[in-house]
Amino acid sequence: MGAQLRVYKQKIASAQTTKKITKAMELIAASRIQKAMARVRASSPFATAVTRAVSAVATYSDVDHPLTVERENIRRSAVVIFTSDRGLAGAFNSQILREGLELAELLRQQGKEPVFYLVGRKAVGYFQFRRMAAVAEWTGDTDTPHFHTAEEIAASLLDGYTRGSEDGGVDEIHLVYNRFVSMMTQSPEQVRLLPLEVVEADDSAPSQVYPLYEFEPDAEVVLDALLPVYIQSRVFNALLQSSAAKHAATQKAMKSASDNADKLITDYTRLRNNARQAEITQQIAEIVGGADALGSGK
Question: Which family does it belong to (predicted)?
Answer without folding.
Answer: Belongs to the ATPase gamma chain family.
